Amino acid sequence: MLCIMCIFHSLGRRVSIIVISSLLIVASFASSFIYNIPSLLVLRFLTGVGSVQAYTASYVLALEFLTPVHRNRFNVVLNIMWVLGGFLLTGLAYFVRDFQHLCYAIGGPVVVLVILTWLAPESPRWYLVKGRHEECRKVLERVARINKAPFPQELFQKMIKKNTVPQQKEQLTKQAEGDELVKRGISDGELVAGDACEETTVTVRAGRKENYLTLYKHKDTGIRMLIFVLNWTVNALVYYALVFNVSNMGGSIYVNFAFTNGADLLGLIVVFVVVDRLGRKASYEAFLLLSAVACLATVIPFYFAEPGMTSTIVNILSLIGRFGVSSSFNILFMFSSEFVPTPLRTTSLGIFSLSSRLGSVSGPFIADVGVLLGGRMKEVLPLLVCGIAGLIAFLSALILPETNKQSLPNTIADTKNLIKSQKKKGTPSLGSFVRVTDLDVPVFIPDRGTSEEESRLKLSGI
Asked: InterPro entries in the record, alphabetically (predicted)?
């Protein structure tokens, strides 16, 4: 999974989605023709890798088109599609009992994804950090033209200069000397002369010398990246343990699965309402704490509830835990994406996703721990494990920075500045709210009818 994300980062978001989705289509359809277990396991493995990476790459592509105010709406809409997919899967599994036909039904819609991605433009941020400024300009001009809004040329040039890494060169006092250097060329990057031609700055593509491991060379970013890895692992463990625990609940597995999807949908609605008001961090902590407390509280009915009501109360608390962790997981996707810099965003999300697979793989074993150990409290043992894990993740997340209404960082230096700025003024956390303004120049797509002056003001953060 990590190798796939590293390789496809150099090809771009759009190409990554097309290639990975094509792999998903082939693996899904081929699964219907396999009649031996080893081959089927390989194809199901490829299907799992393809579905996760297609989702991640699609998320990053769309996220990098958006300004801070629109990211929450996009995140909620995308995750509503995830929940609707869960309802659709429930219906398909109930009515299509033949495995071969089910493979066709699941793999077919991915063909539509490939076609739509082929028609979509590449991420302008990816072009920007790769130094492909002309292609970045063409994408933004196309979007502005579709929106019938003017393209802010001045701000585009400012954005290019702002997202390069300056290295001071010797001062030039004559225009002729500057022209001579331009003619000879400088291997490190592109020469940009100042207004008075008194100083020349060599600009290097942002992210050219940065890789994923560079994040861990800096104490501030390294510690917080490890915390994000831990939180992805725990969220996946709790989420999938509660998903697989559905089979241990009384009643129809199809009805129970539909109820848990309903809890996910309710969580998304609440996330949409509160995440911009409270911020990413405070909202994430609140929902994760709710999930942990609900899971831990399942022990109470065994001591205080009537015997006939114990299972019902445990099921209700389990649904509340599912509601909380589903909401926190949705916020975590956006929260962590807004923390890592653009050149490393796809790779970092690949690492986070890989760590979450460790949690999801543990989910079935956690769900069956009560069955394996037995005893009077076997029904709540999986939920107690989930509650303890959630509480640990909650405590670790207290030092993460707030990313709400911040521009996406384009370099590791931007991420470090985000951490330092919030260390000075205090990071909004659970139970608090701090208004945060944009610190950087985002890739802004003007709304329909927006004048060039209004676009300039929005890009300037005013």
From this structure: MFS (IPR011701), MFS_dom (IPR020846), MFS_trans_sf (IPR036259), Sugar_transporter_CS (IPR005829)
List Cβ neighbours of 442 (8 Å cut-off, separation of 6 or more): 67, 68, 407, 408, 459
Q: How far apart are the two ends of the chain, measured CA to CA in Å?
A: 41
The CATH number that domain 210-433 falls under is: 1.20.1250.20
* 3-class DSSP assignment, residue 231: helix
Q: How many CA atoms are closer than 13 Å to the CA of 172, on its beta-carbon side?
A: 22
**Alpha carbons 233 and 75: distance in angstroms, whole number:** 20
Rg (CA), the chain: 25
pLDDT band per the 50, 70, 90 thresholds, residue 285: very high
DSSP codes, 311-337: HHHHHHHHHHHHHHHHHHHHHHHHHHH
- What's the CA gap between 122 and 117, in Å, rounded? 9
**pTM of this structure:** 0.64
Residue ranges, comma separated, of all CATH 1.20.1250.20 domains in the chain are: 210-433
Give tens-digit pLDDT for 312-363: 788 888 889 989 998 999 899 889 988 988 888 878 888 888 888 888 888 8
The secondary structure element, H or E, covering residue 339 is: none
Tokens for 434? 């701090």
With residues binned 3-state (H G I as helix, E B as strand, rest as coil), the percentages for the chain, rounded to 5, are 70, 5, 25
HEC assignment per residue over 387-414: HHHHHHHHHHHHHCCCCCCCCCCCCHHH
Contacts of 447 (CB under 8 A, 6+ apart): 147, 149
**Rounded distance between C-alpha atoms, residue 364 and residue 366, angstroms:** 5
Query: How many C-beta neighbours within 10 Å does residue 8 have?
Result: 21
Residues 118, 124, 125, 131, CA torsion sign: positive
Strand partners, 200: 193
| Secondary element (H or E) of residue 221 | helix 219-244
